[in-house]
Amino acid sequence: MTDPKSTGPASLRAADIESAAARAAAKELADGTGPAAAARAAIAVADRVMAGLALNPESGEVVAGAVCAPGCGWCCHQVVGVTVAEEEMVEQAVSALDAEARDRLARRTREAEARLSRLPMEQWQGARVPCPALEEARCVIHASRPLPCRAVLSTDAEICRRWLEGDDVKIPLLAVPRRVYSLAQAGLAQALAAHGIPPGPTPLAETLAMILG
Questions:
Q1: Tens digit of each residue's pLDDT (9 = 90 or more) over 30-54
Q2: Helix (H) or strand (E) holding 53
Q3: CA 21, CA 18: separation in Å to the nearest integer?
Q4: In 10 A of CB 203, how many CB atoms?
Q5: Is the pTM above the cut of 0.85?
Q6: Which value, to the nearest 10 degrees, does the dihedral of the CA atoms of residues 177, 75, 148, 114 take?
């Protein structure tokens, strides 16, 4: 893979990122550390690419500008698809919560499942159903959030708020992190499939419902 420290937007090759994530994930699976470790390995690849791009004078401005911050959960009202490796990573994070936090998460998960079950699947994304992991505008599993969540970085929180309230606007996403983390998830799925593990995806709300039983 191209050295992230010397990578600019023009040389950001999709195949490099996807294959690097696949190799990192495959190594964890081959070593027997499990799917969750494979997910973290793919995340680490994407994080390194993003860190390298941020340091590069050519690409720093491209990846800068995100206004996302703790307590800003406007965009966390979308359906997120996760691989089975990310499911296991999330399960470990949920297990680490205290009993009261898990109970609150279970309640929010039931509410989300009930709302989605009343809609045809093609309407899920537009329903603005809050992610069950969102509590008081903060993600309770933030350190273990799946790759699609990491891919969503906005340049304007006010537009995100308006989007959630139903205005005819689009969340102004930064293209580069969306590309990098999406490619890392594709590489992770590739590694899982190569090891005979159906990768998914599964909606995160459904994953939480299965975990919390």
A1: 999 999 999 999 999 999 999 888 8
A2: helix 35-55
A3: 5
A4: 18
A5: yes
A6: -170
Who's near 141: CB < 8 A, 6+ residues apart? 90, 93, 94, 97, 133
Dump pLDDT digits (tens) for 161-202. 999 999 999 999 998 899 999 999 999 999 999 999 999 999
**Which tokens sit at 202?**
């599964």
Give the separation between CA 79 and CA 205, rounded to whole angstroms.
8
Instruction: Give the position of tokens 């911050």.
Output: 69
Residue pointed to by tokens 């004078």: 57
CA-nearest of 68, 88, 140 to 109 is 140
3-state helix, strand, coil in the chain (%, to 5): 60, 5, 35
